[in-house]
Amino acid sequence: MFCTKCGASVVGKYCSCCGNRVRSSLEDLRLAEKRAKREFENACGNSEYPRRQLELLHLANACWLASYQRYNKSARYMIGDIIPPEAYDSLETVRIHAQKLFDQLAGF
Questions:
Q1: DSSP secondary structure of 85-106
Q2: CA distance 7 to 15
Q3: Which of 8, 56, 65, 70 is nearest to 33 (CA)?
Q4: 53-81 pLDDT, tens per residue?
Q5: Which residues face 21 on adjacent strands?
Q6: What letter would DSSP give residue 34?
Q7: Rounded Cα distance, 7 and 30, in Å
Q8: pTM over 0.70
Q9: Which of 6, 7, 38, 51 is the most exposed place for a label (fewest CB within 10 A)?
């Protein structure tokens, strides 16, 4: 692997030249998945009532997980640590379908 900051060859998790944390492509994909899920839940869970907000967060989480199981194709084509380019596109597909499902179930 190579450092994205300075371009040096890296062995381990940190660059020996600049100290930058270097992630594998699989770690980058998992981090992007977590961020996308958190952004979706935050967008769906806005309510002025705390109890309603918690209900919406649970519903958003269920919609995300259902859509992720149905539309995420990145795990099907992975070979070792090689991530296919459509893995990040499938996250957008998951978000779109999760939003549609959330809108139907929440009555928006």
A1: THHHHHHHHHHHHHHHHHHHHH
A2: 9
A3: 65
A4: 888 899 999 999 999 999 887 666 666 66
A5: 14
A6: H
A7: 23
A8: yes
A9: 51
pLDDT for 61? 93
**Dist CA 22 CA 3 (whole Å):** 6
CA dihedral 16, 21, 24, 28 (to 10 degrees): -160
Residues in the chain: 108
Which residue bears the tokens 């869970």? 45
72, with CB counted inside 10 A (0-12, 13-18, 19+), is middle
Q: Which two tokens stand for residue 104?
A: 């139907």
Helices (H), the chain: 25-44, 50-71, 86-106
